Predict the structure.
Amino acid sequence: MKIGVLGTGRVGKVIGGKLVALGHDVMMGSRTADNPAAMAWATDHGAKQGTFADAAAHGELVFHCGKGEHALAIAMAARPGLAGKVLIDLTNPLDFSKGMPPTLSVCNDDSLGERLQAAMPEVKVVKTLNTLNCELMVAPGKLVEATTIFVSGDDLEAKAKVRALLTEGFGWRDVIDLGDITTARGVEMWLPLWIRLWGALGNADFNLRVVRAKP
Ligand SMILES: NC(=O)c1ccc[n+]([C@@H]2O[C@H](COP(=O)([O-])OP(=O)(O)OC[C@H]3O[C@@H](n4cnc5c(N)ncnc54)[C@H](OP(=O)(O)O)[C@@H]3O)[C@@H](O)[C@H]2O)c1
């Protein structure tokens, strides 16, 4: 499948690299098409490189792995190529302007996922994977137990497509559909606790597991 990846940071590279390994035709997107570091990475890893708009136009499915504070601006740059498509939103609204730990720039009665969806009603936004370190997003089997991932979004068909990629592609076994895009609030507000766990545990190799009662 043709897949676009908005963002050439650590998350974009991990997602893009995994998608190439799965046999997908991947285009990475940056602010400029001639970003030397991004071009070199794409060449080395079997991906294409372009602008955010190029990557969106390329993908039948598009991942948003852009910086949280610029998530809307990145989506607006990509918007012409996103109409009618599924945008898989991995961003977190982290504000580092006052140092560590970061605060949330959007929270409580709003979320970045909702802002993206409200700004682009023609796009099917699905929030997922923002709740854990990027290395684990594509390799949940690195953890000693099966853990849980969430999806949020208004479009059931879009969520089904994302679930299929998460399970068949990335190896997730426990995917909980939280409901519409407003449920992105909860997964984004998990970040302050994630950051404190990171500090307490001394590494990022952990995730949530939702344990149910016996049937
Ligand atoms: N790190 C993790 O494990 C992790 C886990 C879960 C969720 N997340 C979330 O995933 C997202 C990506 O994280 P990351 O650490 O890989 O990358 P990042 O450094 O947060 O973002 C990199 C991308 O943002 C773009 N960008 C930077 N400044 C910009 C600006 N002023 N205007 C427009 N675009 C700009 C960059 O464009 P260029 O390509 O042009 O440089 C680049 O593509 C974030 O929202 C983060 O919160 C991260």
Summary: The two ends are 38 Å apart (CA to CA). The chain has nine helices and ten strands. The CA atoms of residues 136 and 180 lie 25 Å apart.
